[in-house]
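Slide 14.
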Amino acid sequence: MLYESWSLEINDQKIQQARQFLRDYIGSNQDQIKSWLDGASRENFGAELILLSLEARKIGDAYDLSGIALGSAMSLFKTVEGGVLAAQKVVAYNSALGEAIPAELLHFAENPPKPKKQIGPSAQYGRRDLLLVILLKYLVTVYKLPLYPNLTTLSKAADESEIEQATAIGVLQAELAPLNDLIAAASPASLERATRAFEARYPWF
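Slide 15: predicted structure.
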């Protein structure tokens, strides 16, 4: 998990290095980031999330569809919104490589269950939160920034915003705000809660 204890001994150099990394990353990938954040389909978002999680299980270029790996993939295909689309993409991808497709997966992809009525928040929030989770993990791991101050620290602070801006979530919110209204309009505290909720909802990612 991302969440660490807050320490007041924050290295300003680390904060500046993190900001520079984000500026370079955004500068090189701005179009891709905006395209990702602007995606509106919840089904596509779920499918993309599943495919991202399966990337690490590839054998060479192909998705691993053997044994335990197949069972894990099928569980995602059957339970996560967008699973049918992800399954169909995996079948098409591995078939193009000349890989054999397990009968269970092929039957599921060709005879999908009826889709459930979509309820709940837009996929745009999910896309935002996934981007934040991935980048937050990087900032916390590489630059050792605290994710977010605890309530005790905030209650004693003369300037809450100053402390927030010295955290991974504060740095990330400041740098990504120009790209997305959902990030710009949110406070660091609300974004921190959103990433925590995202990880709870998708513990398999």
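Speaker note: The chain has eleven helices and two strands.
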